[in-house]
Amino acid sequence: VAKEQFLGIGQNSRPWFSPKGGIWLSAAYPIFSSTFSSEIFSLSFAIKLCEMFNMESIKVDLKWPNDIFFDSKKLIGFLPRVITRGKKIIYVRIGLGMNFLNKTPSEGIALSEILNTKNICQYYWTAKILKAIHESVECNDRKEYIIYKANTHLTKKHLPRGYNSNDWAIKDIDSNGKLRIYNETQEKIITRF
Known about the structure:
Blueprint: E1 23-30, H1 41-54, E2 61-63, E3 67-70, E4 73-85, E5 88-98, H2 111-115, H3 122-138, H4 143-153, E6 169-173, E7 179-182, E8 187-190
Helix pairs in contact: 1-3, 1-4
């Protein structure tokens, strides 16, 4: 866990904005199951984050594939990686940034803003995130459940970069964890990362 990051890198090598006051963490979790599915791990973690907030009466959405939004503003971004040795999955690694007590750019929101208080405990929320990582690994073999839950949390307001909402709309997440988008004449499947 870091108090601040200066050279954080997000998806597609974009800079990861991570000032003081946020929760910035990297975690590794060993995988012992031969049925672990790397294709849906990002979604299993995303739904566990959504459930974590729902238990606190905070309504959030999944912006496919790896952002958690509150009211159309980014609250959490995360980058999952699966580390293998040959064909065997050894562990998963997650880099996560959560706007917490920090100032955010206009497209972001901090948890302190959502709760309208600065009296929140970083250790409590960090522990909840680590628990969500554990739960996401534990439920990873339940593919149908993960896809179903991901679709219930999916926001259809935010298309992936490079797609315009005047031309495309989000349909759903397919059975392999890919995003389906469509327009008047065609359907397209987007692969994560």
